[in-house]
Amino acid sequence: EADIYQTPRYLVIGTGKKITLECSQTMGHDKMYWYQQDPGMELHLIHYSYGVNSTEKGDLSSESTVSRIRTEHFPLTLESARPSHTSQYLCASSESTDYLFGYTFGSGTRLTVV
Amino acid sequence: TQLLEQSPQFLSIQEGENLTVYCNSSSVFSSLQWYRQEPGEGPVLLVTVVTGGEVKKLKRLTFQFGDARKDSSLHITAAQPGDTGLYLCAGTFSGGYNKLIFGAGTRLAVHP
Question: Which residues, in sequence order, are bridge partners of residue A34?
Fold first, then answer.
């Protein structure tokens, strides 16, 4: 049973559309992350949050934005989708910033922009 | 430039064989984690190693952290088709607030 949920699982949209990828977790974790994953490439951190009203950009530059109004919810928004945004987007959460704690990942959203 | 290099990139073996995959870096990590990712799913944490030279076992999987905390290996004994997946290593730095740096992964296929 998943404790972190991402919707939709798959999304095909046209160029220029605004989209929001949803991520919710039921574990009460303060720390949440968005990663981008392309085939054969490492996961790249694009956004993270250490709690409500806290968001930071990750190591990979992204045109997306995030918000954290509630602990359990960490949506990612693309104002104007482009084919270069085609990728797998993974949301994760962690109990702590202590390096002993691993991440719990959602199943991901596979986005295709045509 | 990848901070974490995983090898091999692909591995295709028969059921019952043993295998080792590697995760190498020139950087020292506070901890190193291994995840397995199946098609259409997110990565699932297998183990965290934090002490240089540490060895952890998870059934048929043996994980080792290098003495200098720059590298790690995953050994699977008597591989089974259920071991098929993408194996990812990820490291954290001291003071890095648990932001994980991932390798590109080793894609393992175990054939019956």
Answer: A47, A91
Q: Is A98 on the interface with B (CB under 8 A)?
A: yes
CA A107 from centre of chain: 11
H or E element that contains A93: strand A87-94
Q: What is the pLDDT of residues B51-95, one digit of tens each?
A: 999 999 999 999 999 999 999 999 999 999 999 999 999 998 766
d(CA A27, CA A94): 9
Query: Among B31, B35, B44, whose Cβ lies nearest the Cβ of A99?
Result: B31
Q: Does A3 touch chain B (CB under 8 A)?
A: no
Q: How far is A80 from chain B (nearest CA, A)?
A: 25
Asked whether the beta carbons of A42 and A32 are under 8 A apart, the reply is: no
- Among residues B30, B27, B26, B45, the alpha carbon closest in space to that of B88 is found at B45
Tell me the HSE value of A30 on the side-chain side, using a 13 A CA sphere: 11
* Residue A114 near residue A14, CB atoms below 8 Å: yes
Whether the Cβ atoms of residue A62 and residue A46 lie closer than 8 Å to each other = yes
Instruction: Enter the tokens of residue B88.
Output: 């990812």
* Secondary structure (3-state) at A83: helix
What is the distance of C-alpha A91 from the center of its chain?
4
- d(Cα B99, Cα A59) in Å, to the nearest integer? 10
One-letter amino acid of A105: F
Nearest CA to A98 among B30, B63, B27, B67?
Answer: B30
Give the confidence band of B3 by pLDDT, cuts at 50, 70, 90.
confident
